[in-house]
Automatic annotation (TrEMBL):
<dbReference type="InterPro" id="IPR053520">
    <property type="entry name" value="Transposase_Tn903"/>
</dbReference>
<dbReference type="Pfam" id="PF01609">
    <property type="entry name" value="DDE_Tnp_1"/>
</dbReference>
<feature type="domain" description="Transposase IS4-like">
    <location>
        <begin position="113"/>
        <end position="208"/>
    </location>
</feature>
<dbReference type="GO" id="GO:0006313">
    <property type="term" value="P:DNA transposition"/>
</dbReference>
<dbReference type="GO" id="GO:0004803">
    <property type="term" value="F:transposase activity"/>
</dbReference>
<dbReference type="GO" id="GO:0003677">
    <property type="term" value="F:DNA binding"/>
</dbReference>
<protein>
    <submittedName>
        <fullName>ISH9-type transposase</fullName>
    </submittedName>
</protein>
<dbReference type="InterPro" id="IPR002559">
    <property type="entry name" value="Transposase_11"/>
</dbReference>
Amino acid sequence: MQTLPKSRLLRFVEQAFHLARRTVARYSSKFSKRRYTLHQHIVLLCLKVQKNTTYRELLDELIEMPRIRNAIDLEELPSPSTLCKAFNQLDMAVWRVLLHLSVTLLPTNGVVGIDASGFDRSHASKHYTKRTRLTIQQLKVTLLVDMRANAILDLHVTTTRKHDLKIAPSLIKRNSRNVAILLGDKGYDDQKVRALACDAGVRPLIKHREFRRSVRRGTFGWTPTSTGNVAKTRQ
């Protein structure tokens, strides 16, 4: 019987499993029940995001995916609540290391762009938030993206209105080895950001902000023109 080739999904799972084994220990602590490994949890969570599905739907599909289960040595499927709990317990640093390791597999060129965007927490129950009087804030996500591979090198997530100039320095410091040229819009136009980038060996190509002077018309109607000359206007 001819052996079936590996699907893209299977290759994705194998690569994620390999990176997970390089990132974290097999179990969270010596007191772990050792029913599932952290590597298995990480792969299943990555698979959920890759397939854009729910915990319950993912586990239902895995029943019919023996090759996927074998690739991560998964003999018994966890419950949806187990995966959800695993996601909440994994530290952000783990995902950042996984992200950095995955970038090494891509053909990046060091030309990197930085930008931010807002995301709504669409899955929050309006009934629940109203009943508990909770305010679900919008997420502000700042991404550092390689322009050749379109790969996310790093990210910063906040629920506050933190200015771009306060976020950029930490991203530059963490990724200076992978960035040769930094592209940014005028929201990142600041001398401190430029100096920090240069000190880290990064060339900043950031759009300069344009400042327009707003001069109130005087008693006699004197106003500056765009050329800097003074022209008298008749009332």
